[in-house]
Amino acid sequence: MKALPKMSKGATSSKLKKAIDTHLEQTKEHVNRLEEVFEILDLKPQAKKCDAMEGLIEEAQSILEDTDSDTIKRDAGIIIASQKVEHYEIASYGSLVSVAKLMGLSEAEKILSKTLDEEKKTDALLTKLAESEINEEASSE
Ligand SMILES: [Fe+2]
Fold this sequence. Notes:
Blueprint: H1 3-10, H2 14-40, H3 51-66, H4 72-102, H5 106-139
Bound molecules: fe (ii) ion.
Fe (ii) ion binds at residues 23, 27, 86, 89, 119, 122.
């Protein structure tokens, strides 16, 4: 995802930077997995603009513009924007897993479930970072 490197660079907390960088690596693998699913379906993948994701990325960009660098407030904003993206991805992959299951496409279901699981884990990690330290630090900044 294009927005992730900017979010990582904009983050102050080393834990947040690490979480974003780890997920950036996972996201590259998610693309490979989608290509695998297309292969299973004997379909050619085609790039298609996603208006919803573009809107979420614009929102993330405006958080970076509206907050000062090296602040935990910016980190709190980055987490909020990132979780919106993760929730959108969870909804998308969750639906795809359900459809694959319904269609009896067990290999596709397995591949998509791996990605869904990583999206959920990233979301949970972001919640943990926000609730265990970043939101409180941001409120006293
Ligand atoms: Fe993600």
